[in-house]
Amino acid sequence: MAKKITIEPVTRVEGHGKVTIHLDDEGNVVQSRLHIVEFRGFERFVQGRPYWEAPVLVQRLCGICPVSHHLAAAKALDVIVGAGTGDGLTPTGEKMRRLMHYGQIFQSHALHFFHLVSPDLLFGIDADPAIRNIIGVALKFKDLAVQGVMMRKFGQEIIEVTAGKKIHGTGAIPGGINKNLSIEERDIFLKGPDPMNIDKMISWSQDAVNFFKDYHKKHRELIDTFAAFPSSHLSLVRKDGAMDLYDGVIRAVDAEGKKILHDIDPQDYLKYIAEEVKNWSYMKFPYLIEYGKKDGWYRVGPLARLNTADFIPSPLAQKEFEQFKAYTNGKPNNMSMHMHWARLIETLHAAEMMKELLNDPDLQKDDLVTKGTKVKEGVGLLEAPRGTLFHHYRINDNDQITMANLIVSTTNNNEPMNVAVRCVADSMIAGQKEIIEGMMNAVEVAIRAYDPCLSCATHALGKMPLEVSLFDSNNNLIDKKRS
Amino acid sequence: MSEKIKFTIDGKECFAEPGQNILDAATDNGVYIPALCHMRGIKPAGSCRLCNVKIAGRLMTACTTPVEHGMDIENDIPEIQGLRLAIIEMLFVEGNHFCPACEKSGNCELQALAYRYQMMVPRFPYEFPVKEIDASSPKLIIDRNRCILCKRCIRSFTDENGKNIFAFKKRGHKLQINIDAKLSANLSDEMAQKAMDICPVGAIIRKEKGFDQPIGTRKYDKVPIGSDIKSVI
C-alpha cells in the first residue's frame, strides 16, 4: 500500500521543520521533501526603520547565532556609511568584531556538535530516544558533556565582552565597534583558572577533532556513506585563498574541485546568485545563475569552507586541514557526515584565532569607528557557523531602510538538505516493511549534519517533540507516534 | 529667608521651600516619587499621573500640588504603587515599545520604571497602533511608536535662538508630536543630543549615532531608576 510518511516537527534542530516522504505500493520513495513551515518576515518589518537599528533588530532572528546576523548587518552598513569593506575599519574595530565572531563560531559549533549531534554518534542513530539526547550524554559521558558546556560558555563570554551581552548585544555599529577590550577583560580569557582559559579551549578543541577521527575509524561506513552525494560548494575565502570566516571574496567549486565562481566581490552577489520560490516551503532555494535552477545549487557551511579554501591560517587547524584534504586526495569532500569533522577543525581554528586576537594590543586602542561618504546601498557577507550569510540593505534620503534581503546559511543549504533527506529515504526507508523510529531519526541525522537552524531561514524559535504520522495513498492517517 | 514648610511622606518628617511642589520637595528630602512627564525647572504638566500620591484620602499629582504645612502624604503604599504599575502597563500597551531593538534601551525611563515596578506581562491587551516615523529632519528622528505624549520636549526644548522645534499636532487619540524639520536642521550635535536626552523614552533619536554607548555603561544598566534619590538619605 502506498504511504506518506511525515516527520513533524524535526527535533534537535533550531526551529520548526517537517519532512514528508511519499512511498509507492512497492515501498519505493517517489518524493521526499524538507518543508520549512514557519514564517516571520524580518525583511519586511525592518523597512522604515533607521538603518543603524538593523544590526540589533535583525539579530533577533536567532538566539544561537545572533552575532552572525549582527555582524553581517553591520558589515552591510559599513558600506552605507562610507567605511567600505575589508580593511576600511580601524584595526580595533575590525579585530574586536573578529574576536566576537570567532567566539560565536566557537560556541555555536560546540553547541551543534556536543548538544545536538553527539547523542546520535555516542548512542547510535537507532538508540532509544529516551537516552539519545544531551541528558543521556551528560549521564553516561560526563567529561564530554562538561567539555561541550564549558566550551560554549567560553565562546559566550567572549561575545559578552565584545558585544555587551552574551545574546543580542550591541557591540558592532555602522563603521566599527562601540567598545574596546580592557586588559582586565582580556586576562580573564588568557589567564583564567582552569579550564576557562584559551589554552585549555585549544587543547579541548584538539581533543574533539581526535574524538571524531577515532569515531570515524570505528564507523567508517556510516561516516563515509551516510547521505553522501556530489555537489558544488560555496563560501567566502580570503583574497589569497585562506579560510576567512569574517570577510573575503565569494568562491564556489564544483564536486570535482573546479572553480565555478571565481572569487567575486560580495557587493556583486546578485549578478551571480538568485533565489527560487517553491510552493511547498517558506524557504527559498538559492542557485548560481550561470548554472540554472536545476544544477546551480550548492552547499555551504564547514564542509564547503574546507572544500573552497586553499589553506587555514592557523597552525594546528592547518595540520588537521591537511589530513582532511588527504582523505579525499585533495578533491572536494562530498560526504555529509564529514561536515562534523570539518566543523571541529573550524572550532580549533576559531580557538587559535581567539588566542591570536586576545594577544593583539590593537584591541586596547580607542579608535573605534570609521565613516566616509554615505551611499544608499550595502551588502555584508560573512561565514556564519552554518554557512555563508548574506545581508543586503538599501536606504532612502532620510536614513530609513527601504529594502532588506537576507540569504541565511540554512537557505543556502535548502536543496542540499532535501537531497540528503532523499539519500536517507532511499537507502534506509525504501522497501522496508515496517517504519521504525530509528529510520525516522536517520532522516533527522542528515538534516542535523547540515544545519539545525531552520528558524533563521524563515526567520522562528522553538522546539517541539517529534511526531511521526503515517498516511496511506489516500492520505488517511494509519499510524501516529509521538516521542 | 522664608520659613520652611514642615510635612511628612509616609511618616517621614520633611521640609520644603514655600511654593515648592511635592515631587521636587520629596526629591530634596531623599524620597523617590516616580514621574515621566516632570522635569525639574519646567512648569509641571501633570499628564503622566505616575506621581500620584494620596493626601487626606485623595489622589493628587505630586508635580502640580504645592506642599502645605502639616501635609501627611502617602507615597509608598500598596494602593499607590499598584496604580503606578497599572499606568506603566497602560503606557506599554498603547504604544509600540519594542525594547530589544530600541537604542534608548538602558537609558529609557519607561523601561527603567517597568523594571523597578517589576512589570511582567501587561494586564491589558496590546493595541499595536499604527504610528508613523518622521525621519525628515537631518538631525533627529521622531518615532511616534514610542512617544508617550509627556510634552517634555515641547515644554523644555528650544533651539539656540529660543525657537520651539517641537509641537503638538491633531487632537484626542490622534494627538502627536511634530518636529520642525527646517529649524531642527540647524541644531548642533550637542543640542540634538540634549533633545534626545529630554525625551524619557526613545521617541526622539539622534541620527546616525545609535548604539554607540556600550551595554554596561548605560544609565540604568546597574542601578534602578530613582536610586540617586534614595542615596540622598
A few lines on this structure:
The complex is a heterodimer of chains A (483) and B (233). With 483 residues, chain A is α+β, with helices and mostly antiparallel strands. Chain A has 18 helices and 16 strands.
Give a written overview of the molecule.
The complex is a heterodimer of chains A (483) and B (233). With 483 residues, chain A is α+β, with helices and mostly antiparallel strands. Chain A is built from 18 helices and 16 strands. Chain A has helices at residues 42-45, 54-58, 66-80, 91-123, 134-140, 142-163, 183-190, 198-218, 220-225, 269-272, 292-295, 302-308, 315-327, 338-358, 409-412, 414-429, 437-450, 454-458, and strands spanning 3-7, 17-23, 29-36, 172-173, 176-177, 232-237, 249-253, 259-264, 273-276, 285-288, 298-299, 377-384, 387-395, 401-407, 467-472, 477-482. In chain A, the strands form 5 sheets. In chain A, strands 3-2-1-15-16 form a 5-stranded antiparallel β-sheet. In chain A, a hairpin with a 2-residue loop joins strand 4 (172-173) and strand 5. In chain A, helix 8 (198-218) packs antiparallel against helix 14. Chain A is globular. Chain A starts with a strand and ends with a strand. Chain B is an alpha+beta fold and 233 residues long. In chain B, strand 1 and strand 2 form a beta hairpin. A 5-stranded mixed β-sheet of chain B has the order 2-1-5-3-4, with helices on one face. A 3-stranded antiparallel β-sheet of chain B has the order 6-7-10. A two-stranded antiparallel sheet of chain B has the order 8-9. Chain B folds into 2 domains: 5-76, Ubiquitin-like (UB roll) (Roll); 85-206, no CATH class. Chain B has helices at 22-28, 78-94, 109-116, 152-156, 181-184, 189-198, 227-230; strands at residues 5-9, 12-16, 52-55, 58-61, 72-74, 133-134, 140-143, 166-169, 176-179, 204-206. At the A-B interface, helix 2 of A face loops of B.
